[in-house]
Fold these 2 entries.
Entry 1:
Amino acid sequence: MPDTLTLIYLGYMFIALYFLSLFSLIFIQNRKEMFTTPKPNRNYSVSVLVPAYNEQDSIKGTIEAILKSDYKNIVEIIILNDGSKDNTLKIVRELEKKYSLVKVLDKKNSGKADSLNQGIKIAKGELIAVVDADSYPDVHALSSMVGFFNDENTGAVTTRILVRKKNNMLRKMQAIEYKIIAFTRKLLGFIDAIYVTPGPLALYRVSALKKIGGFDPNNMTEDIEATWHLLHDGYGVRMSFVAKSTSIAPDTLKKWMRQRIRWNIGGYQTILKYKKNFFRKGMLGLFILPFFSISLVLGTFGLGILIYRTFRRIFSYYLSTHYSLEAQTAVLRLNDVNLNPSLLNFLGVVLFILGIIFIFFALKYVNNHIKEKESFFSVFFYSLVYIVLRPIVLVVSMAKFIRGNYSW
């Protein structure tokens, strides 16, 4: 009979292989539709909301990137200054004087979600674009997104988020990660299972946002919660794989950890809020909740199993060597050497190879469109080192969440 650890390990392998197979099959079936974008059947008016807190280094570039958009019915750009303590307010006031589309709402610090909710109240557009103040939508982004709202059931549209300024190894690793996320998110869109509309650029139907009560100020990841709320209320969420927005990623491990802990804690909050929908409410309960939950815990189990098996083997070797030396017997005998691979090791190697193949394929597919390329060393380092950091963040996030020790 296999022990409990072996069963958990086999379950981990099965789930990982299942999702790899699922993504592969979705791509094969829909590969010709990856870059398809509907042509808008009318000229939707768009209000752009830019929440900002201490963004003096990037806010000007963000606003200018929005102003370069080739979509001609942006009716306003509302900068929501959330009590910034640096020169953000001064910079945006100058932008307000310079550009007629730019408006500034200066407010006390109350968080991103509350800032967006105040912006929704005064926005004039039929659609609302949310753009983080350190992000840069490309010139064609909005034009390739608005057509999805021809379907009255569409509540939100997301896009590819890519890393800007890949000037150190950590940012290069995140650039790879963001591309793989973009690729898999588009695939999830084909089964109505997009679970987040990220802040660097997302487009919402105003009437849908008002129906769900806007963004949740109590959630650390208001974009995930809003997406789930829209799905819960029967709206669809789509993705334009043509559009993109570049964002400034953390450049130090400390900043990266803080960002990822916030993301994970927000994920835990959202799971708890919608836990009653497990295996109910369409794709939200039948796929997104299980998929998202498994994704959060899978890495933790994988890391735990790896650590346990490694230390158990080291401890076993230590005891064997120690007692062999005391008994003055051979430390290693020929019949102790086992060159036959175990099934678990074989499955682990197969999963790793398939994962590497998937990563290379996703990167090649995305890079062909944006004319970029990653080095083999970067991808290999990402697969062996960077991915291992994520389960560690999951464990820290869970500990903070359980203790209630978290904030922006």
Note: The domain at 43-290 is CATH 3.90.550.10 (Spore Coat Polysaccharide Biosynthesis Protein SpsA; Chain A).
Entry 2:
Amino acid sequence: MTDGGLGVAFFSPFDTHRYFLPWTPIRVSPIGLGPFFTHRGLEVLQSELLWIWLPAAVLAIAAWSSRRRLPSVAN
């Protein structure tokens, strides 16, 4: 789901075709420290927060809260 790279080789090594999703919301990070600390680097961090870290945090909190609500089974 990034806007760069070579794509994903789903059927490697049987097929060399690489696939891309039609929707690419995650920005690709610039290489190196200098280019990273620019406006482009900030855009990358924002897209990663929105599309990776926020959903992962919501999923982790939901899993944690559902485990807390389950009654313990004692033998």
Note: Residues 1-68 form one domain.
